[in-house]
Design brief:
- InterPro entries: 6-PGluconate_DH-like_C_sf, KARI, KARI_C, KARI_N, KARI_prok, NAD(P)-bd_dom_sf.
- Belongs to the ketol-acid reductoisomerase family.
- Pfam families: KARI_C, KARI_N.
- This protein has 17 helices and eight strands.
- The protein is an alpha/beta fold.
- It binds nicotinamide-adenine-dinucleotide (NAD) and magnesium ion (MG).
- The site of nicotinamide-adenine-dinucleotide has 29 residues, from helix 1.
């Protein structure tokens, strides 16, 4: 628990732009915290009806921004610069706050906000569905927060009040800055979470299959069972994982882990980090997006066609527990950013 409260925003009108993973969770939690929320969306866009059904006043982004004291930008990162130019910059009040849940566009100067507004960041360390479900249980998901620009003299209070409104202050607030949030977030998803983990799994699968083992067995050993390990990491770190695996598995971990992921891997991780820090990654990604995603589509197709996906689909169809009930994929984790 922290001492942050929603007081600073008690009389504020909050416009939440975007009603996806984060937007819906933030809007509902802020409303349930007693704050005045309007949702800004493209007319008849995919989530307009959902926001109306949830009881919100929904308006076009420009209209939602007019009169708002805090504007939370919770659309996909790549559409934010145009949204800022068209709907926010001409309409946001002097002294109002512009809030992001990821620092990408501000840090890499794709959005250069007007100097008469506050620019802040509140990023929950979890997917939107968890931000909502924890709030409903009277708890919250820890948040990082930051101030990029303080025009009103109250930017930090607004950030912590917003974090309190979405429930984060019930858990923990960690102060950061836009640079740290952006660079660490990109590094984590590239080197470890999405890129690193998926490549490790695929290379392990290929190694076994090329050595003549059955793909079905390989799938279970290198992909399926990863969940057990990740759950242990999540609950109690590497300590808990080591407590729950056999002595043989532990010995193999100590001897073979550093053979696979070694000092050379770490050097290449540093290369990934350098490309993030010096703006190379951002520049390439923005150019790729503007060109209509040609490489992104090609690389994605190759991932989807990999044999591990063919065998995986067949095996998962026989896992009855996956055919019913809530899946993580209905509570999307971070997409880009
Ligand atoms: P999302 O893709 O789930 O939802 C996007 C929403 O924006 C949808 O409601 C969509 O209809 C709407 N939208 C799209 N284009 C629009 C436009 N031009 N104008 C108005 N609305 C538009 O997005 P998300 O994953 O919730 O990400 C939102 C922000 O939160 C991003 O900055 C992201 O980096 C950040 N973030 C996400 C997570 C996560 O768990 N998903 C975690 C931390 C931070
Ligand atoms: Mg991959």
């Amino acid at each position: 628990m922290t001492t942050a409260t929603t007081d600073t925003l008690a009389k504020a009108r909050i416009a939440v732009l975007g009603y996806g993973s984060q937007g819906r969770a933030h809007a509902l939690n802020l409303k349930d915290s007693g704050l005045d929320v309007v949702v800004g969306l493209r007319p008849n866009g995919p989530t307009w009806h959902k926001a109306v059904a949830d009881g919100f006043h929904v308006a076009e982004p420009a209209e939602a921004v007019r009169g708002a004291d805090l504007v939370a930008v919770l659309t996909p990162d790549m559409v934010q610069p145009t949204l800022y130019k068209q709907a926010i910059e001409p309409n946001i009040k002097a002294g109002a706050a512009l809030l992001f849940a990821h620092g990408f566009n501000v840090h890499f100067k794709q959005i250069e906000p007007r100097t008469d507004i506050d620019v802040i960041l509140v990023a929950p360390k979890g997917p939107g569905a968890l931000v909502r479900s924890e709030y409903e249980r009277g708890r919250g998901v820890p948040c990082v927060y930051a101030v990029h620009q303080d025009a009103s003299g109250h930017a930090e209070e607004k950030a912590t009040a917003y974090a309190a409104g979405i429930g984060g202050a019930r858990a923990m607030l960690i102060k950061t800055d836009f640079k740290e949030e952006t660079e660490t977030d990109l590094f984590g998803e590239q080197a470890v979470l999405c890129g690193g983990a998926s490549e490790l799994v695929v290379k392990g699968f290929e190694t076994l299959v090329e050595a003549g083992y059955q793909p079905e067995i390989a799938y279970y050993e290198v992909l399926h069972e990863l969940k057990l390990i990740v759950d242990l990491f999540y609950e109690g770190g590497i300590t808990r994982m080591l407590e729950f695996v056999s002595e043989t598995a532990q010995y193999g971990d100590y001897i073979s882990g550093p053979r696979v992921v070694d000092a050379a891997t770490k050097e290449r991780m540093k290369g990934v980090l350098k490309d993030i820090q010096d703006g190379t990654f951002a520049r390439n990604w923005i150019a790729e997006y503007q060109a209509g995603l040609p490489n992104y589509k090609r690389l994605k197709q190759a991932d989807l066609e990999h044999p591990i996906e063919q065998v995986g689909a067949k095996l998962r169809a026989r896992m009855a527990w996956l055919q019913s009930g809530a899946k993580t994929s209905q509570a999307p984790l971070k997409k880009v950013g």
